[in-house]
Amino acid sequence: MEVAQTIRCMVGELKAQHEIDDEKDVKLVLIKCPLLTSAKIAAIKAQDLKPITEDTYESMAKSRYASAIGIALGLDEMKEEDMTRLMDRETNEFYSHKASCSSGAELEDCHILILASMPLMQRAAILNDLRTPKLDAMASSMIDAIDAVAIIEMLKEIEKRGGAVVQVFVKAEADPSGMIRGSRHTMNTDSDIQSTRHARAAVGGLVAGLLQDTMVYVSGGAEGQGPSGGGSLCMVYSVEGA
């Protein structure tokens, strides 16, 4: 709820200062969130409280998911009454198309960055100002780790707008069902390599191949950040002035 409230405040400031219309103009929300360390778990138990998990690695996933749900609430992608239905994570019902969350032991709180696009009229005025960087962004999501169509369609739309891709932000995860389009995958059961590394490599190769550029940002662990087994997708691109 703290993440949701912070995002609402930040979007409100963007509306006032930069004249974005509403939450739909937000293309991506990046969050760096905390996780449970062994010391934090011990401190919680010392207070006769029960930590949500005693597995520090699992706490990363839970922190990412909680942050993503906060983004979904803050951008009105879900309603607060939906929170009562979140007890069962297996439903995969709620997520944000615009979330990119990663967790780190160095943090005690969430650090939030929002990428948003101005409405067309304001953007047109900026494009005519040669002193202003001409950047825009587009948001979507991949339905799974091999969703080349989502990437290709976004690249086509950017080309249609006369744009050139500057950066790509993608979330990737090994589908928790163990299946991709009816065929099994082994990313969740490989004893040699952790599943997030598999997913980042697979999706990173797909994106880089279609983009013909390896300079992309692919983040593993997509809990609540796009459809289950897939992930959020955002491209920042430059456009020529009028």
In short:
The protein has 242 residues and is of the alpha/beta class.
Description:
The chain has six helices and nine strands. The chain is an alpha/beta fold and 242 residues long. It has two domains: 2-115, Cyanuric acid hydrolase/Barbiturase, RU B (60s Ribosomal Protein L30, Chain: A), CATH 3.30.1330; 117-239, 2-Layer Sandwich (60s Ribosomal Protein L30, Chain: A). Strand 6 and strand 7 (183-184) form a beta hairpin. The protein is globular, with a radius of gyration of 19 Å.
**Mean of pLDDT:** 87
Task: Describe the strand arrangement of the main beta sheet, using strand numbers.
Answer: 4-9-5-8
Distance between the termini: 42 Å
Number of helices: 6
Largest sheet composition:
4 strands, mixed
- Could you state the order of secondary-structure elements as H and E? HEHHEEHEHEEEHEE
Low-confidence stretches: none
Structural features:
60s Ribosomal Protein L30, Chain: A, 23% strand, 242 residues, 4-stranded mixed beta sheet, 3-stranded mixed beta sheet, 6 helices
Write the layout of secondary structure elements.
Elements: H1 2-18, E1 26-34, H2 38-46, H3 56-74, E2 99-104, E3 111-116, H4 120-127, E4 135-142, H5 148-160, E5 163-172, E6 179-180, E7 183-184, H6 195-211, E8 217-220, E9 231-239
Parallel strand pairs: 1-2, 5-8
Antiparallel strand pairs: 1-3, 4-9, 5-9, 6-7
Helix pairs in contact: 1-3, 5-6
